[in-house]
Structure formats: C-alpha cells, structure tokens
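3.2 Worked example (two chains)
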Amino acid sequence: MTSRPLRVFLCHSSNDKPAVRELYQKLRAEPWIQPWLDEEELYPGDDWEMAIEKAVEKSDVVLACISNGSINKRGFVQKELRFALDVALEMPEETIFIIPLRLEECTPPRSLRDWHYADYFEGNRERALQRLLVSLKRRAESLGLKVETPAPKKEEPIEKKKPVVEIPAPKQKEKPVEIKKAVIEKPKPLPVPQISTNQKYTEDGFLLEILGGIEFVRVPAGKFLMGSTKENKSAYDDERPQHTVDIPDYWMARFPVTNELYNAYTKAKGIKHPVSGWEKKKEHPVTYVKWTDAMAYCQWLNNLLKAELPSSMVLRLPTEAEWEKAARGTDGREYPWGNQFDKNKCNTSSGGKGGTTTVGLYSPQGDSSYGCADMSGNVWEWTHSLNKAYPYNVKDGREDEKASGARVLRGGSFGLNEGYARCASRLAHVIGGLFRYLLGFRVVVASPNLS
C-alpha cells in the first residue's frame, strides 16, 4: 500500500465556479484525497496551459463537472478536458479515470458519454457525495493507495453557555454595568439612536441592545474601506477596486440567527424546521436557509416587534456594505480580529470541526472591533444585496428586493479555508441555489431606505 493521496482533478466551466469551489472543499476534507482546482493551485506567472496539462497527467481521477450552462457554452470541451480524454485513451480498460459529474439535470456532451456519470444535485448532495466517494475509493484501492477516514471529531466543550433565547418576550430593562473603553472604534459624539430602553454595555465596552431575545451591537455612522486592493494576492477580482463607503448608524446582530430562534418562526408559520435534529444544537446557526426564507423571517420578526422599533428603523437583512463594515471596522483589516489568519479564532476548514459550532464559541477572541461574533467561518450569511460589480452604490438597484439575480453571501463557512473567511470575501449565490447546508444569516436594525 502507498501512503500518497488520490489525486483528483476538477475540470469545469467558469460558469460553475461557485459550485466547484464548494465540492473542492468537501473533497479536501478527506485526508486521502488531494483535489486540484485551478484558482487554488495556479499562481501568478504560472504557464496556465503547461500547468493544466501536467496536473491532468499526474491525476488519478478527473471529475468533469457539467451543467446546462457549461454544455451549451461554446468551447466547454476545453483544453483541460481534451488533455484528460487523451490520457484516458492510454488507460487500461475498466479504469475509473474520468467521472462526468452532473451539477444539474443535463445531457453529457458526446465526448463524455462512454463513462457512467454521477449526479450531484441540490437536495440530495450528501448521498451523492457518499456515492462519489465510493467510486474514488475504488480507484484509490486499484492503485494500492491507503484510504483512511478519521473518526468524527467531537465538538470542544463550551465553557460559556449563552442565555436561552425566547421570542417574542424581550428582557427586562437592566442597569448598565461599568462602561469600559471600546477596543477599536469609539462612537462619535452624536446622540445614540435608541431602539428601546433595554440597552446596556458588554464587558468590552460595546453598546448592546436586547430586542426580541436577539443581541445587537451599534455600528456608528461614518466611512470605511470596502473591498480589496489590487496588491492583495488573496483577493478575487469581484472584491476590487477597494473604495470608501459612507453609511448611517445601524445595529448589527451580534450572532447569526440560531436554530432555536428560527424554531419560533417555523412554529408560528406551521412549517418544518430546515435542520434535522436541530434540538441537539439549539445554539448553532440555522442552515439550509434560502434567501427568500431569510427575507420572510425578517418580515415576520418585524411584525412581531414593530412596537419596539422606532419609525425610522426596520429589521431586515444587512446590505453587504453594512455586513462588511461590522466585520472589519474602519481600518481595512483582513479578518475581524486583524490582518493575520488564526484558526483558533473562527470555524473554518483549517480548524477541522467539520460542521457548525455554537455561536459565540470563538468570542471574544474572534470578534470584530464592534463586538460582532462569527463574522468569519461557521456559515455563509445572506445579505440583502444583489451581486453587482464594485464600487458599491446603494442607489444602483442592487438593493431592490424584487429584482431577480444572484444575491451576495459573506463570511465563508466551516467547509472553506481562510481565503473565504476574509472580511472582503464575497460569493454570488442564486436564491434557490446549491449547498444550503452552509447557508445561514443574521439580521440588522437599520434604515428602511435602500434606494
């Protein structure tokens, strides 16, 4: 038996990049698989054609990821796939080398019809992944490679248990504790907008509001740096150019919406909770949430708490500008806590949790300068914003909630690496799209005027 990993090449169209990125991370989580994805493995200055050809030649398996968009796109049978087909001709009969992987209902192109395809459709992805892993294990065993699957890791015990959350009854007014100096940004000397009279300060000096069982922190009005510079090699093109955005005061939820909070909504609406066995992880962020689900939750909570909201504010999803400012503050930092990644301050693939963790598990060490927790990792979070190019402009139609198109996700997730957990990282996702087991959200109390 050989100790090297099974080398898997991900062949795909640029149209399917978001879905293939997620699949790459799932395969990467298997210690016996070494997946290859161009945007992760190619570096500035590399000869693209030569690097692709070498990667295909060294691969043990090629996953040809296909969809209607990629098949119908002229030139989908691109160089990397042609390389793979040439290599396949030299393989012994019955060798598992090319596996067509359908990302949606479609007919594989003629060049791939000699191989039995696998389906990786939304709604059945976990089972589909397991079936795919069976094929990959067979290939690994045929090559004499070791296939070792680690036992599932137990979540670390949580010393600090968060208070039980109940909706709709707000907490009683509490006396403010001693005010300490804020860590990064002091509120401007302006009147502090009041949501209700139930305000206090956290131990770190952040003004906190308890509303409907949800903790909110104040993000003061002013300018901040949004996006990434062209010199930042970790950034993607859709994060550029870096620019200054000026937004009014708002209140950001300190944590993502939890399974327990979301349960109050599902009970009120008489619908099924999206997370199976959620009762065992009440304080984990809710997942399997579509953008329309998150919008409906906000509307329900608005109606429930309207007596406590001032006329100048509503409860809604944050815009991506509001989300990013709450995550990175005004100094343009890469991560909520600073410019250097630390796997001990967030739940990403680097930490090896393999699933969601209790909200606040990495607080306060992983908090933003305003006191927001879980802004890096744990779950992707929906924003109100349509995916449009920068610079960000609230008046260009990107905040039109009736418009169709992909919406922006922020924060990365437990299944992705530190590159996606950066404050400026953004992912375009269709409303009914894939990988809902990674998708959650948090809410904001802010101005209703988004145009």
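3.2.1 Second chain
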Amino acid sequence: MRRLEEQILTEKYRKIEGKLTFSVRLAELSVAPGEAAEGAFTIFASQEEIPAQGYVLTKDERMECKTEWFNGVQEKIVYRFCADGLQEGDSLQGQFLIISDYGEYTLPWKVTVRREAAAGIAGKVSTLAGFTELARTDWKTAVQFFTANRLQKSVKKKAKRPGFCTGGCPPDTITAPTSRHFWRKTAASRH
C-alpha cells in the first residue's frame, strides 16, 4: 500500500485502462448484538494480464477491512463488523471505497443486527440429543439457549429428575462457564 501511495504522491501513478468488477453489488452481513462477524467479497480485474493494485477502506469505525491492500486479477477482500452497543433489529449502511490503478469505486455495505437466535431454537430443540447437535454445530447459540434456561423448559416433559438439564445448578447461576462445565461433565460420563 505504501508503494501505491508514494506513486500517487510523486505523480508516477498510471491508471490502467479497464475496470474492476465485484462478486456482489451489496456486501451484506448479519450479526448478533454485541458480537462481531466477518464477510468477504471478491474484486476482479478486467484485464487478466494486468493485475489490479489498490486498497480498500471505509469511514465507519465499526467496519474493519481485514484485507486493506490487494494486488492481483482476482482478490478476496475480507471485512469484519463489530456490533458492540447495537440492539436487535438495528441496521447500518455504508460504503467501501476501493482506490486502485483501475480507478476509484464504491461498493455499498449493509449490516443487520439479527434477532436473538436462541428464541427461535426452542421449537426445534426438544431433546437432549437435539441440543447436543446444536452445541456441536453452533456453540454460541447453544450457550445462549442453555443460559436462558430455554433448554430446561424445552425438554422438561422428558426429564426423569428435576435439574437434569442444568446439572442441578439453580437458574440464577447458569452462565457460559457453568454450561461448559456441565457439558464437559456430561461428555465425560458418556465415554
């Protein structure tokens, strides 16, 4: 990136005839409240024999370009959005600015803060085996589901003894660390 900036400043910068295209028209991302999520898009140079050089930036401090500099005919640009302080249902929009030797481009982005995923899981998880599969595939949602006491409510009818879903922990002590402890203990007893 420093070399391109130096070329521009010393007027040795040469614009290449052709254009850049992008894998998406709008970079969209869905993120949970208070969490971060990553997305990506690809930049394509129209002249395969002449790679594009440039950099990508955005004005919004929550949006971070993980791939700031690119050099190639097909480059993947990774970005990360942090939703700290945002509420469910919030939506933010902005633009990526792509400055290259093929010219300047903008690519709009939109981030939506999704509703709590665990609330919709209750109807799908009705057994301990179903919850185990959820924990295997989506640990964060499983922890949310477990800490919100939804697991106990969801499988209560099948329980043979009270407190089996929480390892006997009182509801106000169920946290992410206690859920990890419970699941380690449960997994150890199965082997």
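3.3 Remarks
Strands lie at 20-22, 27-31, 36-45, 52-58, 63-65, 69-72, 74-82, 91-100, 103-113.
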